[in-house]
Structure prediction request, 501 residues.
Amino acid sequence: MAVCRVRSLALVGIDALPVDVEVDMGSGLPGFSIVGLPDAAVQEARERVRVAISNAGYKFPSRKVVVNLAPANLRKEGAAFDLPIALGVLAACGVLPSGTLKGVAVAGELSLDGSLRGVRGALSLADAARREGLRGLLVPSESAPEAASIGGIAVYAAGGLEEAVGILRDGGSPVETEPFVRWEDGGAEEGFEDVAGQEYAKRALEVSAAGGHNVLMSGPPGSGKTMLARRLPGILPPLTLKESIEVTKVHSAAGLANGGLIRRRPFRAPHHTISASGLAGGGTNPRPGEVSLAHHGVLFLDEFPEFGRSALEVLRQPLEDGQVTISRVAGTVSYPARVTLVCSMNPCPCGYAGDRRRGCRCTPGQIERYRARISGPLLDRIDLFVEVPRLSGEELRTAGEAEPSWRIRERVEAARRLQLERQGAPNSALSGKRLREVCRLGPEAEALLVRAVDRIGLSGRAHDRILRVARTVADLAGDSEIGPEHLAEALNYRRPGDLDR
Prediction:
């Protein structure tokens, strides 16, 4: 019999590439082999497929079966090739007409009883099948809602091998695609109105949310840094459909998606003991790290100086480029990492530097070594430096009287709309010639910036970041031109030591 081909897909990073599963049954001693650069999980498919076919009520052929996964130079990983291999074997035996496999991509992991388990990256598989011009995608029922959420391709859900054969042979009804509905804060969650005082920090976070700028908050323990950071997602604009698809792809590739599109902006807060690969991604079989899982959302690093130096330094590339590139012997993968970085730290090891009531016992050398744990190049990628002081008794009694998050979010959304209409991206993504065009300064603001650069000694990167922040401040005010008052606020968010020179 001629070789039977089943179209499948291999997940590489957060994207999927087409793979042809070719099954041939020839003469010779009975055997079952898989070639085409499979990893251990794919090699183990031989036993899963053999037993699943028998337990589903079919007879496994007593012949020499060779399965080739093409192209042979692409590394095949995971158990998603179980179902296409099993269907290819059944088609080669004549149980399933080979013509029913044309134009349909197949992916799924088989259990020994013939039932199907979900697969990672179902959304990416559906996107790739749509790009390939295929008429449908057959996946396990567990993964079908996620795959169908992208739209544009018929997605068929099967609970087991026998049901998959029935869908291909007799036809089936595709899973219905739910319309995309953006997540909106209904006011049930905690908001900025629960935070007493700290108006300066709240304003800085509003600027951060409006333009996607990175923030470092410094203050004594209990001043509200973590409380403020955890409320930042509540004032961020809702995800667009495009952003929601990108976020879901990343989480699905990491095995964290839970059916359907992710509609809320991610908030990731890893512990300071995390490794460099855990933060940036990696491993023998690369997976997205925390910085990619926070794509289009917030990456919160509490106790910033306590993170390992090697872990923090891997953030330099993604904060600048918006993506992480991981190189391994088998190849190179890239994960998106367009995040708003929010960090918090104490002013010294004991946390009470500058607090006369509590008193600080740290020596100048200890304070210097503590702050030196964060490198200059990494600090240069921070846009807003915010002091969060200890509150007085009167200020602590004002909780509930502050401006609510929904009102702040209205201003943030209006500023984001201006940015998207003007340049198609948040202000934090502006660079090069486009930055100069969008951030034009009047004569008075130009003179102020020149004086500030000469006095502070800013780097070129810091100069550009000040321009971006000033542009966001102007957008929040609804002004088309950056004025001296907007630039002055942006300069005020620089490191406190810079402005004292």
